[in-house]
Amino acid sequence: MSRFGETADSILEQLKNGKKLRLNELEKKVSLNDFTILHFMNECGLIDLENECLKITEFGSMLLTLK
What we know:
Layout: H1 3-15, E1 21-22, H2 23-29, H3 36-43, E2 47-50, E3 53-56, H4 58-65
Antiparallel strand pairs: 1-3, 2-3
């Protein structure tokens, strides 16, 4: 898996419980060098990014359960 994919996976794993997470909290848990990936994940419907808070979407949750 690419580094991009690994980072996206890590972000979804952090959000999988359905709770909102602030950007600064996510930065402590996942290595983020730039926020392009978050904007991409938001545009693709994997996460909701609003007012520096992140939340996984139903679509993002479904992707986590695919094997």
